[in-house]
Amino acid sequence: MSETPQPVVLLIGECHSPQFRRALLSGRVPDSSVTASSDEFHSVRCILESAPSHRVSSIPEAISLVAAGELTPDLVVAYQSIPDEFSSAEIDQLIGMLPLSRFVVAFSPWCESIGRTEVRWPSAWSVSLGHAAARIRFELQQRTTDQPPLLATTSRDEAFSALAAGCLNDVEQVGLGKSARVYSADIPLKECFEAILASLHFTIASESPDISVLASAFIDQTQIQRVKELNDEVHGGDRFSPDSPQPVILVASDMATPGDVVALKEAGATAVISQLRFAEDLIDQLSVGPPT
Question: Which of 134, 158, 149, 12 is nearest to 79 (CA)?
Answer without folding.
Answer: 12
